[in-house]
Amino acid sequence: MQTVFSIGVDAFAYGMVLFVISIGLSVTMGLMRVVNLAHGAFAMIGGYIASYAARDLGLAYAVAVMLAIAGTILIAIPVERLLYRRIYGQSELTQVLMTIGITFCIIGIANYVFGPTLKTIPAPDALRQPISLGFRTVSAHRLFVIACGTAVALGLWYFIERTAFGVKMRAAVDNAAMAAALGVRTEVVYAVSFAVAVGLAAFGGVVGAELLPIEPYYALRYMVTFLVVVSVGGAGSIPGALAACLLLGAIDTTGRYLMPEFGEFFFYLAVIAIVWLFPRGLAGRAE
Amino acid sequence: MKKLAIAALAAALLGGVAHADIIKVGVVGPFSGPFALQGKNFKAGIDAYMALNGNSVGGDTIEIIYRDVPTADPAQSKALSQELVVKEGVQYLAGFYFTPDAMAATPLLEQANVPMVVMNAATSAIVTKSPYVVRTSFTTWQTSTPIAKVAFDGGTKKVISVVSDYGPGVDAEAAFKTGFEAAGGEIVEAIRIPLQTNDFSPIMQRIKDSGAEGVFAFLPSGPTTLGFVKAFNENGLKEGGIKFFAPGDLTQESDLPALGEAALGLTTTFHYAVSHDSAENKKFVEAAAKAIGNPAELSFPAVGAYDGMHVIYKMIDATGGEQDAAKAVDAVKGLAWESPRGPVTIDAESRHITQNIYLREVARADDGTYYNKEIQTFENQGDPGLAVVK
Amino acid sequence: MLSGSDTLSVTGDRRARLTRDAIGVLVILALGIAGYFLFPNNLALLTRITAIALLVLSLDLVTGYCGVATLGHAALFGAGAYGAAIAAAHFGIADPIAMLAVGIIAGSIAGLVSGVVVLRAHGLPQLVLSIAIIHLAHEAANKASGWTGGSDGLAGIMPDAVFGLWQFDLWGRTAYVFGIVLLIVVFVLLRQIVRSPFGMLCRGIRQDPVRIRAMGGSVHGTLVRMYIISGAVAGAGGALNAISTQVVGLDSLSFTLSAEAMVMLVLGGTGSLYGALIGTLAFLWFEDVVSAANPFHWLTIVGALLIAVVLFAPKGLYGSLASYFEHRGRKNP
Prior knowledge:
The complex is a heterotrimer of chains A (287), B (390) and C (333).
Chain A: H1 2-31, H2 39-56, H3 61-87, H4 92-114, H5 125-128, E1 130-132, E2 137-139, H6 140-162, H7 164-174, H8 176-181, H9 186-207, H10 218-221, H11 223-233, H12 238-258, H13 263-277
Antiparallel strand pairs in A: 1-2
Helix pairs in contact in A: 1-6, 1-9, 1-11, 1-12, 2-3, 2-4, 2-9, 3-9, 6-7, 7-9, 11-12, 12-13
Chain B: H1 2-17, E1 22-29, H2 36-53, E2 56-57, E3 60-68, H3 74-88, E4 92-95, H4 99-112, E5 116-118, E6 133-135, H5 140-153, E7 158-164, H6 167-183, E8 186-193, H7 201-210, E9 214-218, H8 223-234, E10 243-247, H9 256-259, E11 267-270, H10 279-292, H11 300-319, H12 325-332, E12 336-339, E13 342-346, E14 353-364, E15 370-381, H13 385-389
Parallel strand pairs in B: 1-3, 1-4, 4-5, 5-6, 7-8, 7-9, 9-10, 10-11
Antiparallel strand pairs in B: 2-3, 11-14, 12-13, 13-14, 14-15
Helix pairs in contact in B: 2-10, 2-11, 3-4, 5-6, 11-12
Chain C: H1 6-10, H2 14-38, H3 43-63, H4 74-91, H5 96-118, H6 123-143, H7 145-148, H8 173-195, H9 197-207, H10 209-214, H11 219-245, H12 255-268, H13 273-293, H14 298-312, H15 316-331
Helix pairs in contact in C: 2-8, 3-8, 3-11, 3-12, 3-13, 4-5, 4-11, 5-11, 8-11, 9-11, 12-13, 12-15, 13-14, 13-15
């Protein structure tokens, strides 16, 4: 019984980590309809900035996180203006080509600037303590990530469903011409949405770095994982993405505990099964 | 077709006679992609050797040509090796980080009259694939066997083995199991985990539940090792007194800054530590650190490459710069020298390097950095894995 | 949704199409011969390009002609490669033609399985299904190391001489000629297939599946059949790879190879066999040149190339070229 609880805790924590790192991609793919394979690259940039700020400059963790988000958005703005703007509304394959190109470039530049070694982001002492849950200990950092995940989920849901900007954003995505005719400045809406997505990517990259450490190849190494959880959830749906992350996290963790030899099979067979049952994703809308 | 081949072969042979030539060495390795760091170390080792020993042997100038195979990709490795031989006209093939890449190129050697100096790929069987293969690195069997003895002698009788599910991992598991059971220990469980594993918490739970007193681990260096070691600490296994044994790939120096405190006290056995205390190593580290730029990135592939260049220089010397693979390989059989890692010999029969294997522990230096501290030496270790291949 | 140049093969009468096909074959043949004599020392690379070209052609059949998005197409290629390699290494079937046949059959079976799974969904979920397939295939090959050699790769493939006459040599001449002949045969067959009523039905499905269904066509059945054909082509490519390099590794069943094939196809232009060939040639040649020039930082330059293509040739190299000439042709008839 204790083992079951223990696996449950691990599964929940892993699912939340997946959620925090991937949710930005759900925004670009689901709300902006861009297959953004460079999502991991932006998460990685965030991680590098935070690592540089916290480790080399010795700044506080919270400051490093803020700097990472701000810095990544700053870098992403010209990329959005010059490159992404050209592929809005284009075919998926064109978007794949462009964003893979961007990913390659960012990997090459990161390798050149920071070198190929792993970079860590030193967390404050409070987050490094193991915390006892009675039947087992769990690292404080995991609890912190769970809290972050919850906050992001609620905040994003509120932002999209309840604010005026969220309404404009959904309108611009569903019918850009109509929204523009009604006075919505779609270019601005897209730019802000992109900034939100990139900011979330950077935040996820920093917070998730304990599990997915920062190195130049990060951008490609975890690309598939991000793509899978977001699509299984149904791109653009926050509850869907959360459900997918928790479900896949649970399957992955349980599989790895019970039969580590076949861990990879468990995960991908589950993916096929879910998509087979829900061909539009867990929370996908009919088109 | 046949005539053409003979003509070309004749031309190649004639070309080899001329003196004061440029002798080309083709190096295949991962210079970009996820293993770029290891490729960078190849280059640093080669650069260091050439900086210390000059770039010419007997009037012939040595030129290195690099070719990139980012991840294990035998087809690409073979195509590039072939290109190096027929287009660039290299007299020596060297490098090879991954076993399949080395295996793919071995069928070329005899026909091309080119020796291959393996600077890393660590599966025992490679040297048996062609009489023209010489290896200056190590094998997973060679570095994993002594740790079994260390574990048993240290009082650990029950061990769980956890390895990544790929060639080297399976090799390490077999090597440790053989050594540990021969000593009288018990492997309570042997787990193979997928290469792509991000969260190691379930594995740690599994280790706890197995009731083992120690864990033997082998995973590829980089993110996987970092995740595993962190999880080992965070889930309270280290505090719980579970011993940690591994070959030294896990605590390679370039990963130590990231591993940090989590790695403190981990015991590993390996053929080389950057901290090895000898005059030869000081000289090497100084030159290699200069070549690589950032001394913290220096790691074991550099010494394999450095000694590989030593072997190639000896081969060029022995053949007088002529292309004669058989003569070149014969010349280094039984060759003994003082390497940065300690005294080494190329075993005349297997053409694999015989060397000391060291037991090390990760320790903190006075300046706050971490290093592998050598605490015990197993002298003149051959490759026990060869017995299994045959 | 997908860019293409359907107009090319719809316009013009049958005779003009045949002429164009003949010209196409002649161009490939001429390039093949030119490659043999101009780059006698690069034949291994050229053979590799030929094998990958078969994979990209095969991908074009399902992506360009049927509109199926997949990032797992290497499963078909790898099935062919391992099929041929296992036949040679474990069953002693060392005749290259027989190995090719085994590869084609293995590829077709993999095509059938992938097709049935992938066609279940559309859009992103479809992409994810294809990713799941390639990972499962990769992991299965890693597990079955007794048959496949696992991560060490399957070596010890020693193909006999072609028709007992031409040995596979160090310079890769035989393998190259073998590959070019194979490519031309496949190309001619595919030209026939994509122009046949069956091929037209596939294009129709890509453009409007609902209408095809309303007309009484079987959408699913047609696409699965195309997937099997695609598997045969990719399997041939895999077998060629196994025969020419004599070793097969897990990379031939990797997500990376699948994604690269997709990049090459989009680079050349989807929905046209020429686009697939041009994309493969351009990408691999460019990659070889830059990675030889700078083995350490070439990835950045390849990335810049991809971005440039999207910006300046959004229909792919061939697609943009074709529409440019078409445009000019219309201006001054």
